[in-house]
Amino acid sequence: MRRWLFEQSLTLFFLAIFLLALVGQSVVGLLAYNDEQRAHGEHGLSYGRYLVSTDFGGNVMENWQSEFLQFTLIVLATVWLVQRGSTESKPLQDAGPESDKDARVGEHAPRDAPRWAKVMDWRLRVYENSLVLAMLGVFLGSWLAQSLTNWRMFNDEQTQHGEAAVSWLTYVGNPDFWNRTLQNWQSEFLAVATMTAFAIYLRQRGSPESKPVGAPHDETGSTG
Amino acid sequence: MTAGVSLKTGVTGPQAGNTAVVRAVFAVMWLIIVSGIVLYSVVGAANL
């Protein structure tokens, strides 16, 4: 059991702090929401009702979509784009899709390779892109959910101010939607650019996100 | 951890149980993500 926990500790640690942060967000989100409701002379929501509200759902989905967009882009961009000296980059000469030999597919697949890596048909095409497809699917799904929840919140506000409600299609062209979207995207893109560039000169001993402490600054694609 | 035989990999002993539990963690993550997206798409579409 202890061995198993050790072997899965990275995933389990992040899953645990994700759940703690989500619960924390729901509690303080409810407090803030109800404060505002009461300031407008309206009734607050129960905790259970708040969990399935457009306010909480919209806030959760806004952040999910940008995180999964970040991973979609970094997985895809690092196939072709490189950064000399960064751990986030492949060695410069490896830019581009790998050969079948390097990717260990088809006749080059080892005996214990995943089944879909051994076949040279559509299954390989799907499997060799499965990480990006999964991340892209989650990004698009959570972005759609964000647009729907934000749309309803926007229309509630419109109605409260005596203005006409808008259709979903109109809303996704509205500055309110793009303001909520781009404020999340910009922070993700800055974080990726920073991590890529900082990893050239800075180190964290023992982390695979860093080069070995003594590695030269122009050594590309190595991990500690 | 459950020791046993993995039908997919043919691995025996503790490693097989380990593989099954890792897959369970993977499945739980998908469940969280997909249920979150479906739930809040419905919440938005139904204007809850």
Find the biggest chain interface: A-B, 30 and 20 residues
The main pleated sheet of chain B reads as: 2 strands, antiparallel
* Class derived from helix and strand content of chain B: mainly alpha
| Envelope shape of chain B | rod-shaped
Fraction of helical residues of chain A: 55-70%
Classify the helix fraction of chain B into a percent range. 55-70%
Oligomer: heterodimer
Q: Per DSSP, what share of the residues of chain A sits in E-state strands of 2 or more residues?
A: under 5%
CA-CA gap between termini of chain A: 28 Å
**Total number of beta strands of chain B:** 2
Unreliable stretches of chain B: 1-11
Strand content of chain B: 5-15%
**Main β-sheet of chain A, in a few words?**
none
Number of domains in the coordinates of chain B?
Answer: 1
Mean pLDDT value of chain A = 95
Mind explaining what this structure looks like?
The complex is a heterodimer of chains A (224) and B (48). Helix content of chain A is 63%, strand content 0%. Chain A has helices spanning 2-7, 9-39, 47-51, 54-80, 100-103, 122-127, 130-160, 168-171, 175-201. Chain A is elongated, with a radius of gyration of 23 Å. By secondary structure, chain B is mostly helical. Chain B has one domain (4-45). Chain B contains 1 helix and 2 strands; from the N terminus they run ββα. The A-B interface holds A 1, 3-4, 7-8, 11-12, 15, 52-54, 57-58, 60-61, 64, 112, 138, 141-142, 144-152, 155 and B 1, 9, 18, 21-22, 25, 28-29, 33-34, 36-37, 39-41, 43-45, 47-48.
Summed up:
Chain A is mainly alpha-helical and 224 residues long. Chain A has helices at residues 2-7, 9-39, 47-51, 54-80, 100-103, 122-127, 130-160, 168-171, 175-201.
